[in-house]
Design a protein that fits this description.
- The protein is α+β, with helices and mostly antiparallel strands.
- The chain is 32% helix and 31% strand.
- It has an eight-stranded mixed sheet, with helices on both faces.
- It starts with 11 loop residues before the first strand and ends with a helix.
- The model has no long low-confidence stretch (mean pLDDT 95).
- It is an enzyme of class 2 (transferase).
- Keywords: Acyltransferase, Transferase.
- InterPro entries: Acyl_CoA_acyltransferase, GNAT_dom, N-acetyltransferase.
- Pfam families: Acetyltransf_3 (PF13302).
């Protein structure tokens, strides 16, 4: 049986953050910083209006988690279950065996280690909560902040893909893929 984020015990607490599943009404709370150019530089979805943002937000609720600091949402992330690639006769065994992580942090709180703390908690949710065997994350190679977070939480770079990602600036940028196995994550924490 594959677990979902809603099956986990909430809230989850880190040293400074409280994490919980995102709710439809959270779209309003993150919109003021989600629409900033510094944030939109690296996000995959560009919402022009609060209405667009709300529609996108609602479509992603099943895999979304928010991070709360002092009563305010300062981070949004995803833990999206995926099926591992497999041969056709192994599809059932590969179902739900990995997860993709992603995160966005309010620029007002950047530079304090909260992105790393939030991403580490998402990794723990995937490995310990959902029981996946592999966790992946990707970014534009120029997104140094995300790359550093992935490295700090123990993920290894598994690929650099030359000019494979079309950025909304119109430039083709290099993409990077990072991953960690559940057993590596557990050994790293031990």
């Amino acid at each position: 049986m594959t677990l979902a984020l809603t099956d986990l015990d909430w809230p989850v607490r880190t040293d400074r953050l409280e994490l919980r599943p995102a709710r439809t009404e959270d779209a309003d709370a993150v919109w003021p910083w989600y629409r900033l150019p510094d944030v939109q530089e690296w996000t995959t979805t560009l919402s022009i209006s609060l209405e667009d943002h709300q529609q996108w937000w609602d479509r992603s609720l099943t895999s979304s988690v928010v991070g709360i600091l002092d009563g305010r949402i300062v981070a949004d992330g995803k833990v999206q279950l995926q099926d591992a690639w497999s041969q056709a006769d192994m599809v059932q065994q590969a179902r739900g065996q990995q997860a993709e992580l992603g995160w966005v942090l309010d620029p007002a709180v950047q530079g304090r280690g909260l992105g790393t703390e939030f991403a580490a908690a998402l990794l723990d949710l995937a490995v310990d909560g959902l029981g996946v065997r592999r966790v992946e994350a990707s970014c534009f190679a120029e997104n140094l902040a995300s790359r550093r977070v992935m490295e700090k939480i123990g993920m290894r770079c598994e690929g650099v893909f030359v000019e494979e990602s079309l950025h909304r600036s119109g430039r083709w940028l290099d993409g990077m893929a990072f991953a960690i196995l559940a057993r590596e994550h557990r050994a790293r924490r031990a």
